[in-house]
Each structure stands twice: as structure tokens, then as C-alpha cells.
Amino acid sequence: MGSSDGTGRSPADTDSDPLGGPYLRTRFALPARPATFLRRQRLVVHLNQALRTPLTVINGAAGAGKTLLTADWAAGLRLPVAWLTVETGDHPPGVFWAYVFESLRVCGARAGGAPGAPADSSGVGHRLLASLAAELNALDRPVVLVLDEYDRMTNPEVAEQLEFVLHHAGPGLHLVLVTRTEPLLPLHRYRAADKLTEIRGSELSFTPEEADALLRLHGLQLPEHAASALVDRTRGWAAGLRLCALAARESTDPEQYLKDFEADHSTVADFLLAEVLRGRTQEEQDLLLRISVLDRFCPGLADALTSRADAGLLLAGLHGENAFIERLGHSWYRLHPLFREILRAHLRERMPGAEPELHLRAARWLRRAGFLAETLAHAAAGGDFDLAAGALVDNLAIGQLFTGLRSDALARLFADMGPEARSPASDLVRAARALARRDLGHGLNRLRQVQNHLSDAEDSPDLTATRLSCTLLEALAARLTGCPSRAEQAAATAEELRRDLPDHLLDEHQELTSLLLVHVGSVRLWEGRFDDARAVLTRVAGARGGPATVLPRAESLGHLALIDYLNGWLGRAERRALAAVAEAERAGLPRPPGASLGRVVLTAVAVDRQELDQARALLAETYRLPAREHDPVPMAGRALAVSRLLLDDGETDAAVEAAEPAVSAAVTSPWAESYAAVVRSAACLADGRPEKAVRLLHGVSGDPPVCAVEAAAIQVAAGRPRAAVELLDSVRAEGRTGPAVSVGAALVRARVAQESGRAVTARRLVARALLDARRERLRRPFLQAGDWIEPLLATAPLHELAEGWLLSGRRRAHGEPVRPGPDPAPLVPVELSGRERDVLRRLARTMSAEEIAADLYVSVNTVKTHLKSVYRKLAVNRRGDAVRRARELGLL
After folding, report:
1. Which residue ranges does the record assign to the HTH luxR-type domain (predicted)?
2. I need a labelling partner for 736 at 20 to 30 A (CA). Which of 43, 354, 409, 582 fits?
3. Rounded to an integer, what is the distance from CA 885 to the centroid of its chain?
């Protein structure tokens, strides 16, 4: 018998709903799980928390797997489960509650004599809802009510009634809402009271391991990288993974199919268009199509593309409805990758030719907002390279073409720049790209064009950034041509221009100043002005300006290491070279430029220590690094190391040939010329032509000191002791020369003394040389000294100083192989760098090189380089010996 006040009908009247139609029993049935359904235990465990909270919300996009997940979980419960799939026709409260009552009756949760369902489709009486709440509260076992597709319910009156029943049902009801949108319930109160279980889109996404298991259920076995790539592309979206798997299963090559998969021509497109795009308002569809050209977007950027001002509300609504828009934070969003692909295809169909203009609108907005990287990408995509180049130059970011971090990406971005781009900024970028690949001809030509334009233009503040960027390329051109005056002029101009630019812009792009100083320092080094070069290079090496300045710091350290080597400080050169290599590797690049000179110096140091196998290995590493043609200093450094190594191997002709690049720059270097002359002279001496060897030394002076000492050794070997002593006297030590100079000079003077009959003086000088050399592990000068030193080293005091570290197999004839003897315990205190001590401490804990690298956040190669240095300084060859010796010396 029906109730006139809408409180309910008797159970006998519940065969039909309030609208008079029969109940649709499929709405009360748990959805069947397909054979390829994958149970994800982590989500089942989370869902089990629903039994401890009154309310559970499973909120995710269409196809996220919400319904099947909940159905699978519900099927395994021992509690009664009332399942109801909500439909759009349930908006009238009476209809909705009639179906809720029926779902509870079907699962057996209601007693036979309980009040029936609402009689009126338009409403439901408060007494009936109160009776239902009281009835549920009195149950011995709680009932789980699942409302699937609850996002279809948008009637706030129903939401209030549902919250009333949930509140008063107490422990008798667990409500589970499966929805695409945020339900109209006071979720904040449930969260605050810890009475809410939530599973959202990010948690519903498949992990790579789960995706692999799902693909296997579909009969697909893909390599790990292929499965991971599919997860990245689908963002772990359940429907996307399943539809891709079903399509790939029909292919003869599933892996290749998924790699070439076109989302816009697939069942994925059909799904997303049906579930997300269709049914949207014209404004929402227009917004989605236009923002599909963007990787990420905010309301302001979206407004710029739509020429409207309502993007903020539309985006918030679309995100709230899980319309495949992800929130990134701070009002930024992004589209799901597959959805974006499909939208872009529809953009081309619906608005042909609109894409370039949308990119340019985005580029202009992003430039004003200060997002340089995205400005460049969209300007290039829109075909406006003047805009892209202007943004790069005006932001003082042209140095990024040289830092290695974004150099390749920027080179690819500007690769399509055609002749239609004619602005000074575009020509400046062309010049930078040419100089970066060491194409001097094209680079200098473009640079002259920019300079001509700037000289014709007024002294406009708008061109200050262009002028400053131009000085960077000027300094680089000077470095590559070895022209000191040009580099100094560029540095002076840059200093003046910096005053007219905002500090924040200079701070954001410290790489420009760092690169300029490195170029100036390199040219000063090439010119032989070591102290002046050290002054600017030290500024760069000691600066801390973020990732963009890592490689300028590495290059400065490499140059400083070479200066130390040329002044005879092997240990100091080695430490700085190791720091240069480590700094370059810290940039995270597989082949970091800037590490080359550091490895060249390490090679030269290894040659002086007669660790020839290590020298060859280091030299091989430099050949695997990016080429540095037309860069005089690295070329000269490599020529120096290679030629000396070849000399020690007895390859005199090859040594002379290898020394030639040292003097191939447009402007010659005094020290590079001197070293080339010494190599040619040493080769002649080795080939038995002392007269020619002496003539080749004409012009070699006291700078650099190491070179002068080697020239003096050749002079005395050729029978010209007075010339040798005069050359040594011209060396300006002044406290700046290291052991390699003092050892070489002492041996030359010792030979002169020995051959003039002053044996006591000769022994004293050799003893001093041995003491200085042992500290640096310096062996080469003794091996190159000649037979005259043999009797002296055989004497007891000198023998004790040489025993155990100087090479045991001394070369007696040209080409005879050198065999190093065992390393001794150091006679002087061992000095380890802070990072070497870090490595040593972990070595003592029996950690592997890989474990040490992971613990210190460096590469394995860096760890091995430090280990080699530690072994050398401790005069050991094995890990255990290193730890034991370090403990003896109190280093551990």
C-alpha cells in the first residue's frame, strides 16, 4: 500500500520503479571481469581500508579501471554488497532512492518487513530515509553499498540525502563511490576525521611491472624497455594499455607496432573521443583542441590561444571531471599524452593551418612570461626563427650553445632556420653554431655581418644584449685563432656592456661570463702569459653558478692544470686535471667536452712518471671525446703529450710529426713552438745527429721552465755544457717553478759537474734531484739522463734514495723497453685530497667501485681515477695494501 507523503511503498509494491517501469536487474549486478583482467594486490590492500571507514571514493578518468577493480574487490568480500550502477535518469531523488532500496533488497541486506521504496519519483520523505538509516545501523553485519559511475549524479539534493543516511547509519553502512568527478559530499570533513578512503588517478595508473603482467595476459611478451615506453606513453592508463595490447596482438611484430603506434587512428582514439570529447560544450572543445599544441599550460597561456578569458574556469572544470587533464601545480596543467595526440590530429582536421599560429601565440606569451626554453620550442615550431633567436639573445642565453647541457637540443632546434630569418640575432645564432662546431670560415663571416649591423645601428639599449653576446663569440674566435689582442678587446667591451644590463639577467646566465673568461684565459695561456691566464681562470674555477657553468669550470681547471704542468708542478697539475675530469663528468653527459684537456695533462704527467700504459689509456680516452680542432691550447697539450710518449717509445719520426699541431694556430705560441723545437731536437739527438739537434734549439728560451730544462739537457748531451748552463741560468724561478724544473736542472748541472771532474758536487746534485723527484714520482729525467748517471746511482747513499721507486730496468739503448720497478713507501708525508680520503675510507669498508660511486654520487670512472691517484701516492698497487699503508700513515 503506497504512502501518500512519499515515505515509501510496501515490499509487495517494489516490482517496478517509481516511474512505473521494471527494475533493470543489470544495474544491480557486479560487472564481469574479462579473462585478461589483472588483479593488482596493492590496490586491493588499499581498498580493504574501506571496511574501516564509512566512505570510500575511487576517483579516476574514463577507462582507468575503477569499476573492474571495485567489482573484483567486492566479489571477494564476506559482507553483503549492494551494487548499483547510476544512470543519468536517476536525478529525481525518488528514482535514485528506489534503486538504492532495491539494491539493498537484492543483496539481502534488508529485512522482509522493512519499509518499501519511495513511491514518488520526484522526492523522498525524510521519515523513509531516517527509517533506512536506523535499519542499517541496527544490522549485525554492515552492508557495503557501491555506487558505480556516481559522476552521473549531479543533483545536490540527492547528495545531501546520501550524506544524511551515511551519517546516521553508523557502522552499518560502508559507502563506496566510483566516480570520474569529485562527489558533492563534504569530503573535507571525512578527511579531517580520518573517515575517508581515497584512491585516485595516479594510484590507479599501472606500474611498469603491472603493465608487463597485463601484456602477458594478452599473450604479449615485450622487452622491458618496450613495456616501459608503452607505460610512459599511456601514463599507465588501463584502457589505453588494454586497447594497445589487443591491437598489437594482431600484429606480426607487436614491439614494432607499439613503437610506431598512431593514437589518432586507433580504437584508443574512438574511446577517448566518445568518452571525453563528445558531449563537451563548443567552448570546451575549442579550448582542448587549441591547447593540444602545448606540453603544459596555465589559464593565461590558454587564454592567449583562445582569445578568450574563461580558460581558468574551463580548465578547473575539465580537471575536476577527470577529462584527461593533469594538474601540475601552481595553476599549470598538461594533457594526457595519448589524448593530446588525438586532439592534435583533430585540430588539423577542424582548423587546417592553425597550428603554426597557435605555436607563435604561445611563443609570444611565454617570452613575456620568461619561459625561455618553451619560447624557443614554440617559435621554431611556428617557423619564426627571428623570434626564437631574439629570445635566446635577449635572455643572454647564447652561451647555452656551448655549455654542453642544451647544446645539442639547441643545435637541432635551429637546424631548420632558413635564409628568411635575417635579424642580427639570427645571424648571431648562425655564427655561434658555426663556431661551436669549429667552422671558423662560416662563423667569422656571420660574426662580421652582425658587427656591421651593430656599427650602423644607434647605441640603442635594446641591442645591449646582442652586443654582449657578440663579445662572447669575439672572444671564442680569438681563442680559436690564438689572437690575444682580439680577446682582450672583447673582454673590455663586455665589462662596459654589463653595466647596462639588469643584474638578475646576468645572474641567470652566468655561463656567458664564465665562457668569456675561459676564452680570455686560454688565449693568455697560448701567449705564454701564465700568471695573467691563471688570474681569470681561477675566477671561473672558484665560481659556483649552477649546472650551466659546470663545463666552463671544467675547462678552466684543465687550463690551470696545464699551467701547473708547464711550470713543473706535476702533483698540483694532476689534482687540478682530476678535478677538471670530475667536474665535466658531473654535468651528466656521456662525453663531456672540457674533460679533454684534463685527460691530456694526466697523460703528460703519466709520461713523466713513466707510467706509459696508463698514459696510452688516458690518451685513448681523449680521442673518444669531442674533437677540438682549431682550439690551440688543447691541440698543443695533446701534441706535447703524444710526442713525448712517442719519443720514449723510440718512434722519433712519429714524435716529430705529432709535435707539429702545437704550432698550427694562426698566431703562434712561444711555449708551443719551444716544445715542438725540443721534440725535434730530442729526436735528432736520439738518431745520432747532435749538431742538428743543437741548431733546432735556436730560439728556445727560459720560458716555459720545463721546456728550457729539457733543452739544456739536450745541449749538455750534445757536448755544449756552457750553453746548457746559460740556458738554465735564464730560467726565472721566483718560487713559481716546481720539482720537474728543479730535478731536470739539478741533473743537467750534475752532468756538467761530473764531466768536469767535480764528483762530489755531481753526487750532491743527483741526491737533491732524487729527493725532489721521489715526492712527485718523477722518473723520466733519470731515464733520459744517459749512461753518465749509472755510476753515481750505484753509490750507497744515492742507491738508497733510488731503491724501490726509480725504474729498475734502465734504458741503455734507443728503443729498449722500460720496465718499472715496485713503488716504495713515500719518504715524505702523503697528501690526499678530500675526495681521495672519501674514497679511501669507503675502500676500507670493502665497498666496490660501483658502491663507492653510488655513495658519493659520482661516476665509476671518477672513482677509479681517484683510486689510481691514491695508489700512486701511497706507492701501492692493490686495495688491501692501500688500506694497510693508509693506516700506517694515520690517514684512516
Report:
1. 825-890
2. 582
3. 38
**Same domain as 186, residue 66:** yes
Give Cα 343 to chain centroid, integer Å.
30
**Cα 637 from Cα 421, distance rounded (Å):** 40
Which residues neighbour 488 within 8 Å (Cβ) at sequence distance 6 or greater? 520, 523
Residue 130 belongs to a domain: yes
CA gap 245, 14 in Å, rounded: 44
Is-cis flag, bond preceding 590, omega within 30?
Answer: no
Gap between the Cα atoms of 359 and 348, Å rounded = 13
| Cβ contact 120:93 at 8 Å | no
Residue whose cell numbers read 731515464 = 783
The residues near 553 (Cβ < 8 Å, ≥ 6 apart) are 514, 540, 541, 543, 583
Identify whether the C-beta of residue 250 lies closer than 8 Å to the C-beta of residue 258.
no
Scored b (16 or more CB within 10 A) or e, 463-487 reads bbbbbbbbbbbbbbbbbbbbbbebb
Alpha-carbon span 551 to 537, nearest angstrom: 13
Q: Return the closest-CA partner of residue 155 out of 212, 93, 81.
A: 93
Q: Are 708 and 702 in contact (CB under 8 A)?
A: yes
Residue 420 burial (CB < 10 Å; 0-12/13-18/19+)? exposed
Instruction: Name which of 87, 235, 212 is nearest 149 in CA terms.
Output: 87
- Lookup result for grid cell 589559464: 299
Q: Is residue 488 part of a domain?
A: no
CB 334 within 8 Å of CB 328:
yes
Give a yes or no: residue 839 inside a domain: yes
Helix (H) or strand (E) holding 616: helix 612-624
CA distance 600 to 665: 18
| Other residues' Cβ atoms within 10 Å of the Cβ of residue 330 | 6
Q: Give the largest CA-CA distance in the chain.
A: 137
- Residue 665 CA, distance from chain mean position: 35
Give the domain-ending residue among 223, 240, 261. Answer: 261
Contacts of 498 (CB under 8 A, 6+ apart): 468, 506, 513
Closest alpha carbon to 109 in 35, 169, 55: 169
Question: Do 251 and 376 share a domain, yes or no?
Answer: no
Task: Specify the amino acid at residue 639.
Answer: A
Give me the sign of the Cα torsion angle 703, 708, 711, 712. Answer: positive
Instruction: Find the distance separating the first CA and the last CA of the chain, reported in whole Å.
Output: 93
Instruction: For residues 87 and 167, state if they share a domain.
Output: yes
Q: What is the DSSP letter of 65?
A: S
Q: CA-to-CA distance for 122 and 18, rounded, in angstroms?
A: 9
Range(s) of the domain holding residue 853: 834-888
Q: Which amino acid is at 105?
A: R
Would 718 be classed as within a structural domain? Answer: no
User: Which CATH number do you get for residue 863?
Assistant: 1.10.10.10
The rounded average pLDDT for each run of 10 residues, N- to C-terminus, in the chain (892 residues) is 46 60 89 92 94 96 93 94 92 91 90 64 86 93 96 93 96 96 92 95 93 91 87 89 85 80 74 83 94 97 96 93 89 92 90 96 97 96 96 94 84 92 94 89 92 80 88 94 92 92 88 94 94 95 81 92 94 92 70 69 94 87 60 89 89 88 72 92 91 90 84 93 90 78 94 93 94 91 89 88 70 39 44 80 80 73 82 77 78 76
SS3 306: helix
Dihedral, 334, 339, 345, 346 alpha carbons, nearest 10: -100
Angle between helices 238-249 and 208-217 (to 10 degrees): 40
Taking the C-alpha atoms of residue 640 and residue 659, their distance in angstroms, rounded to an integer, is: 6
**Shared-domain flag, residues 243 and 301:** no
Burial group, residue 566, by CB count within 10 angstroms (0-12, 13-18, 19+): buried
